[in-house]
Amino acid sequence: MPGTRRGMTRTESDEPESRYDAGPFVPRRADLAALREAAGGCRGCPLHREATQTVFGPGDADARVVLLGEQPGDQEDRRGEPFVGPAGKVLTAALEEAGIDPGQTYVTNAVKHFKFELREERGKRRIHKPPSLREMTACRPWLTAELALLDPQVIVALGATAGKALLGSSFRVTRQRGLLLSYAAPAADGAAEPARPRSGPPLFRRSGNGYGSGMSLTFTLDPPVGAPLRDGICSLWADVANAGGAVGFVPPVTTAAVRGDLLKHLVAMDEGRARLLVGTDAAGEVRATAFLVLNEHRLMRHWLWLHTVMVHPGLQGRGVGRELMAAAAESARGLGGLGGIRLTCRGGTGAEHFYAACGYKEVGRVPDAIKVADDDHRDDVTMWLPLV
Predict the structure, then answer these.
(1) What is the average pLDDT value for the chain, to the nearest integer?
(2) What is the pLDDT of residue 95?
(3) Alpha carbon 132 to chain centroid distance?
(4) How far is Cα 69 from Cα 107, in angstroms, rounded to an integer?
(5) Using an 8 Å Cβ cutoff, are 207 and 219 in contact?
(6) Model's pTM, two decimal places?
(7) What pLDDT score does 279 carry?
(8) Going by C-beta distance under 8 Å and a sequence separation of 6 or more, which residues neighbour residue 77?
(9) What is the distance between the alpha carbons of residues 83 and 67, in angstroms, rounded to a whole number?
(10) Which CATH class is domain 16-176?
(11) CA-to-CA dists, residue 97 to 92, 93, 100, 191, angstroms
(12) Helices in 271-319 by DSSP H: which ranges?
């Protein structure tokens, strides 16, 4: 009767690669250098048999941006580095055009071994074959460990395989190309521990309007909240309120007067009930904010509230407000499972017309519900943006 006693022949099914799981090869509590060394001995799937070597990610361990490709190509497999072939030239040109220093990025692939077939074309040539879902899943523990250590702010998925490795098999380039999506990092099962506290990978996008003065904003979802950010938000809210913005405060107000409202939102963030979207300029100054507040009603969890939508008065009329609203909508879509965004605004200020220009529709109005002063009552206007 077959058994596993010493001296008996092992079958192919006994080999680690037959389980299609790289997890057992990923070392615990490893830094990037140790992960890279361990990956060289990975036998988590059959792709290692024909490949020349494992191709692990190089780059800045403190990089804010991770560029994620599909798998190594022929030249990458021979040289042991990702994106050194024809695709690498295209990527380098794209980074230069976008003004991104390649030295400040981390480059890796969803699958670490080259998958190919041999063809008789002017001699035998190794022709790229896309990895299967099973092979991609087998290699995922390496990617999970890399991202846990890197803790990037942005992951750029370079193609369908990279997108599916991050977001699941439902990802489609034809539908989601160019969109800002949320990535919820899976647990690394103790295989790697982040070198610094994780806040989850925030999302950011560069505003494309230039604003005449060369200013552009970076919109970040869930940035690390420290004293400088709190002070910056309070200053922004006070400036907006004192400039006449209909943002829930009656001027004149001080930063101390608005701090209590901010702390309530930050508590909601800490409890997982809200997400903070912040727009900062090149100097890191807070210039725009919005809170995405999840609906806790069991029958209404398919939509969220948008609160404290504010843009610095000095940027009014320059398209920043629309950029903020677009970033909020993209962030909400990235959370998944949401059908719409709901917000309220003060009537008589023109705010409802601005939101309508951003795709929102007025769905309700309560006359005189907002008391600005004894002789000044305004309508409370409800706006709705469908996300599907």
Answers:
(1) 81
(2) 83
(3) 25
(4) 8
(5) yes
(6) 0.49
(7) 92
(8) 51, 52, 53, 55, 113, 114, 126
(9) 10
(10) alpha beta
(11) 9, 6, 8, 37
(12) none
